[in-house]
Amino acid sequence: MGTPTFRFGRVTLRRKPRYVSLFTGAGGLDIGLERAGLKAISLSEVEEVFCGTLEANQKKKHVDGVNYFRDARILNADIREVSGADLADTGVDVVGGGPRAKHFPVLASNLVF
Predict the structure, then answer these.
(1) CATH topology for 15-97?
(2) Dihedral, CA of residue 40, residue 42, residue 47 and residue 48, to nearest 10
(3) pTM above 0.85, yes or no
(4) What is the rounded distance in angstroms from the CA atom of residue 20 to the CA atom of residue 64?
(5) DSSP 69
(6) I need a surface site. Which of 6, 22, 24, 104 has the fewest CB within 10 A?
(7) Which helix (H) or strand (E) covers residue 107, if one does?
């Protein structure tokens, strides 16, 4: 059968594309990236409670049979204090993440019914 390849435009890789995640939160975007075939190298999040969620999810097989973030480094740190070496010691193909979202109570207080 040979080695599986992953094609992105004109680039073909002989391994899963690797990514680092910034502003990870509880990891929803990252689960999508892993379901799309990417492999997490590191996940960076400033909120300790979200890092706890990531660590808990990293240690178990989910209902879809996948161990998400299995070998990923989880960094509980302010991104302004993280270096490239902290994020990855090997090549990275994608940098993903999103800006910090407002907390739900603040957002909900602005809704009009």
Answers:
(1) Rossmann fold (3.40.50)
(2) 100
(3) no
(4) 23
(5) T
(6) 104
(7) helix 104-108
- For the stretch 24-38, pLDDT in tens is 999 989 999 999 889
**pLDDT reading at 1 higher than 60:** no
Task: Compute the distance between CA of residue 19 and CA of residue 23 in angstroms, rounded to an integer.
Answer: 13
Q: Residue 104 is inside which H or E element, if any?
A: helix 104-108
The size of the chain, in residues, is: 113
Could you report how far apart the first and last alpha carbons of the chain are, in Å?
Answer: 58
Residues with Cβ within 8 Å of residue 8, at least 6 apart in sequence? 17, 93
Q: Are 54 and 42 in contact (CB under 8 A)?
A: no
Q: Which residue type, as a one-letter code, is found at position 50?
A: F
Report CA torsion sign: 103, 51, 100, 69: negative
Strand ranges of the sheet holding 73-76, from the earlier edge strand across to the other edge? 73-76, 39-45, 18-22, 94-97
Signed CA dihedral, 92, 60, 74, 53: sign only? positive
Determine the residue type at 41. Answer: I
